[in-house]
Amino acid sequence: MTADTRILDQLDEWQAQGYGDLPVCMAKTQYSFSTDPLWRGAPEGHVVPVREVRLAAGAGFIVAICGDVLTMPGLPRHPAAERICLNADGEVEGLF
């Protein structure tokens, strides 16, 4: 079974279970309409590969995982935890 067949079968199953009217959230690079972050903006002539789908029934949507994307939303390139430390007096620094 190919990935495409597996994904389509999963979507068919969710349709049969009553989730067919849910909106779809595309999880992909934020830098481009493609799934390649190096193709900035709105490049033409590309295909958006969906590698997996996830049902977020409680939130009320289906997530299509595209390309090589992580699904941890809203994380910066350098986490705030890298700037947090204790100074010589034992006080926390770098929170704000």
UniProtKB/TrEMBL annotation:
GO biological process: one-carbon metabolic process
GO MF annotation list: ATP binding; formate-tetrahydrofolate ligase activity
Keyword Nucleotide-binding: yes
Source organism superkingdom: Bacteria
InterPro entries reported for this sequence: Formate_THF_ligase, P-loop_NTPase
UniProt key word ATP-binding: yes
Pfam assignment, any one: FTHFS
Keywords per UniProt: ATP-binding, Ligase, Nucleotide-binding, One-carbon metabolism
Name of the protein in its database record: Formate--tetrahydrofolate ligase
Native species: Salipiger aestuarii
